[in-house]
Specification:
- The protein is mainly alpha-helical.
- The protein has a two-stranded parallel sheet. A two-stranded antiparallel ribbon has the order 2-3.
- Helix 4 packs across helix 6.
């Protein structure tokens, strides 16, 4: 299993899908206000700078960022957000970028699969010009560089957090599907049991009815035999009495 770090930088590079400037898979999210239409972001960079503008209540910059047709323009607009507070942005920036990338990878299954396929390998933004979101070294220089001289690599760390969150979501989905399947099987078994119970109950009722009918027939037959014997006895007694009286002689 490959364990070496994955270095990425430009959106046009081999691992360009990890870049904030990846433009091939725009993503749409619901607006915070229920009456507002959904918002589509061309890139994760658009989401980041839009979030930055909203954080400092710069509606003009937020709208301009959404309309920008290239992430380079977005970056420039983000640097001019009015009311900017560095300390506050430092406290919120990773959350904003994490949210944006969660939307990005959830909205593009093929990107999600590529990210999950990186396993547990370290993700490193090898930007030679950025020591905050990257490490300050280009991809071809990073492997041989001294880690002690690296920048913060915030984007790489955020992407690893996103990867873990997506993996947990996938596992939970599998567990839910198994429970649903098991529940369906148990329901099917229960239906079979109920069907068998109904069948046996029906058979018992049929046997009981048959026994009752046979009992009625026996009772009727016995009654008829008794009636016949009684009729015969009465006839004999009457004949005898008649003989004793001599009313009938042979």
């Amino acid at each position: 299993m490959e364990t070496s770090p994955i270095y990425f930088w430009r959106e046009t590079g081999p691992e360009g899908y990890l870049s904030q400037w990846w433009t091939r898979d725009p993503f749409t999210i619901a607006a915070t206000a229920s009456s507002s239409p959904p918002i589509t972001f061309m890139t994760a960079e658009h989401y980041m700078m839009h979030g930055k503008a909203l954080l400092f209540a710069d509606a003009y910059a937020a709208l301009a960022i959404l309309r920008a047709d290239h992430p380079r323009k977005v970056r420039a607009l983000g640097r001019r957000v009015r009311g900017f507070d560095g300390a506050r942005w430092d406290a919120e920036r990773e959350r904003v970028v994490r949210e944006g990338n969660l939307h990005k990878f959830r909205g593009a299954p093929h990107l999600r699969e590529r990210l999950l396929a990186t396993g547990s390998r370290e993700l490193v933004e090898a930007s030679p010009t950025d020591r905050i979101w990257g490490i300050g070294f280009a991809p071809d220089k990073a492997p041989a560089s001294d880690r002690g001289g690296w920048g913060l690599n915030l984007l790489g760390k955020v992407l690893m957090e996103v990867r873990e969150a997506l993996r947990e979501e996938e596992q939970q989905q599998h567990v839910g599907e198994k429970k649903k399947k098991k529940g369906g099987e148990e329901k099917g078994e229960q239906l079979e049991v109920e069907k068998e119970i109904r069948s046996r109950t029906k058979k018992r009722r049929t046997r009981s009815q048959d026994e009752e009918e046979l009992g009625d027939e026996d009772t009727t037959s016995k009654s008829r035999r008794v009636e016949k014997r009684e009729d015969g006895k009465e006839d004999g007694e009457e004949d005898g009495e008649e003989d004793e009286r001599g009313e009938f002689r042979g």
